[in-house]
Amino acid sequence: MVLQEAQRAVIKKQFEKLEGDVELIVFTQEFECQFCKETRELVLEIGALSPKIKTKIYDFVKDGDMDLKYNIKKIPAIAIVGKRDYGIRYYGVPAGYEFPVIVEDIVDASRGTTLLSDNIKKKLAEIKKPVHIQVFVSPTCPFCPRVARMAHQFAIENEFIKADVVEMTEFPYLAQKYSVMSVPHIIINEDTSFIGLQPPEAFIDMINMALRRSYNPMYS
Fold it and tell me: Is 68 within the bounds of a domain?
């Protein structure tokens, strides 16, 4: 058992806010990767806390059609799907400070909307080109959850935006590829990046800056 009784009680209370059904889709491997077992067990426990949550487990190798469907290229991976697939992905174990991100994402996905201000939603609605956000985090980073949540909220509000949260210590090759030295580290469409917690207006400005560049985001 991964969750403590007190944690389960708090999460159950939060899940009373769920409106529509949510799918938690986990990609793992029968021959377990280092963090796959813990990720799978955690998501199964979360899913058991509400009848509105359906948990699906796919083998990254054997269920190859599914990883193509959800554009999953690394594991462990969690896709949070509501009325539609919002492009919300979490790579790694959502542990430490990051754990509430998953719970709050589930609530948003069930509603198909977020608590972002109307002004921010209006700015997001102006984005009409594909955007791929990667937020590198760590379980001990107190500022990371707010950035991770913001990216996932943007994805829910705008169908052109896809947002990955990546646990940097579990994917060191990606941290090296993007020169991630501290977190939160945000990559937009591969060629635009910034570090640290920024207000949503500044985050959107960075997205628009990325879109002014020539990169064609068939994201990796």
Answer: yes
For residue 109, give Cα distances in angstroms to 10, 52, 66, 87: 19, 11, 20, 11
Q: Six-digit token pair at 114?
A: 């977020």
Please state the domain count of the chain: 1
Distance, CA of 109 to CA of 79 (rounded, Å): 11
Residue 109 neighbours by CB distance under 10 Å: 29
Chain position carrying tokens 């501290």 = 182
Supply the range of the domain harboring residue 160. 5-212
Residue 220 resides in a domain: no
Q: In this predicted model, what pLDDT tens digit does every residue of 6-52 receive, in sequence order?
A: 999 999 999 999 999 999 999 998 777 889 999 999 999 999 999 99
Close Cβ partners of 186 (under 8 Å, ≥ 6 residues apart): 133, 134, 135, 136, 147, 151, 193, 194, 195, 203, 206
Residue 141 lies in a domain: yes
In a domain, 217, yes or no: no
Q: Do the beta carbons of residue 123 and residue 150 sit within 8 Å?
A: no
> Token pair of 15, please?
């899940």
- pTM of the full predicted structure? 0.93
The CATH number of residue 178's host domain is 3.40.30.80
DSSP labels, 12-29: HHHGGG--S-EEEEEEE-
pLDDT in tens, 185-215: 999 999 899 999 999 999 999 999 999 985 5
Rounded-to-integer distance, Cα 109 and Cα 220, Å: 23
